[in-house]
Amino acid sequence: MATSEPIRLTQFSHGAGCGCKIAPAVLEQILQSNQSIPNDLRLLVGNSSKDDAAVYDIGNGHAIISTTDFFMPIVDDAFSFGQIASANAISDVYAMGGKPLLAIAILGWPVEKLPASLAQQVLDGARSICAEAGIPLAGGHSIDSHEPFFGLAVNGLLQQDQLKQNNTANEGDLLFLTKPIGVGVLTTAEKRSLLKEEHNGIAAAQMKQLNKLGELLGKLSAVTAMTDVTGFGLLGHLIEMAEGSHLSAELSYQHIPFIDAAKEYAAQRIVPDATYRNWNSYNTKVSFASGVNVMEAFNLLPDPQTNGGLLIAVKPEAVKDVQTLFQEQGFAKFMQPIGRFVAQTEKIIHVLA
Q1: 183 and 116 in a common domain
Q2: Which residue of 139, 154, 302, 313 has the fewest C-beta atoms within 10 A of its own C-beta?
Q3: What is the DSSP string of 45-65?
Q4: pLDDT single digits (tens) 160-181
Q5: Active centre residues (catalytic)
Q6: Domain region containing 347
Q7: Binding annotation for Mg(2+)
C-alpha cells in the first residue's frame, strides 16, 4: 500500500486506548454466568473480584500474575502506539505489587488498509517498552482485522505476602494517585484535529510511563490496596475499590491532579464518548458537595485513562513511609492525599470541594 499523505492511525478505529473498554454496566451483564465454576484454592485472585490481573499460587510463598490488555490506536504514530499499549498492559502487573517476567504480543491489523511496515513499528515500540521493563517480548499472535489493535499478555511474579488487591482497603485509609487525570480529553482533541500545537506530546509522554513504582509499593505493608486508573476513569476504578472493600470514599476535588490543558478542552465539551458511557454506568453512586465545579468534574472524573496512575490506599499512621518512597522515586508532586475511605453509605463516592 502506497500513500503520499501521513497515515493517522486514530482515523482507522472507532475507539481509542482504554476508552475502548466496554462500559461497566454492560460488562456486568457479560460476566454473569449460571455455570458452576470449580473452586481452585491456588487461584488467589480471579473472576470473583474485579481486580487488574489473575494471581495463582505456585508454592513456596510465591505466586504468578497473569494479565492481558489490548486496544485500538490512541495516537497516530505507530511506534508510540506500541509503546503505550505495552506500558498499559505491563501496568496491571505493577498494580498487583508484582515484577513483570515476560510478555507476548496481540496484534490485529487491517492488512488491506494499512502497510505492514507500520505494524512492524508498533512491535518495535512494544520491544522498547519491554526492554525498559526488563522483560522479553517472547512471541505473540496476529490476525487480519477490520480495525488495528495491539496489546500484550504479560506474566509476572510476586511474593504472596506482598500481593496488592483492589478490594482490601480499610476505613480511614488515605488515597494517593500517581499521575494526573486528563489523557482521554487530550487524545480526543487530537483525534478531532483540535489539539493545540503547544499541547502535542503531553498525553503520549504520560501514557508511555511505566508504573514501576507499584513493584516497590508492593513491599510496603502500609499499602492496603492498589489498582491502576484506566478506562473506567478515576471514579469508576475508585468505585470498584470501595465496593469491593465494602466502604465508601471521599474525594477532595481540589487535591486531585489534573493535566492543566485537559480542563481547557473539557470546558469546550471535547471529551471522549466513553466519558458519557462511564458516567451513565455509575452516576447514581456519586454525590457532589457544594463548591465543586460539577460540570468540570463530570467531564474529568469519568475520563477514560490509558496507562493511568496507580490509585493507592494507605494506612494513615504509615503515610510518611509512602511519601518518603514517592520523594525518592521522583513522585514528590503526588505526595498529597486525594481522599480517604469511610464507612459505607448510600452513595459510594462523595466528591468534596
Answers
A1: no
A2: 139
A3: ESTTS--SSEEEEEETTEEEE
A4: 999 999 999 999 999 999 999 9
A5: 18
A6: 174-352
A7: 52, 92, 228
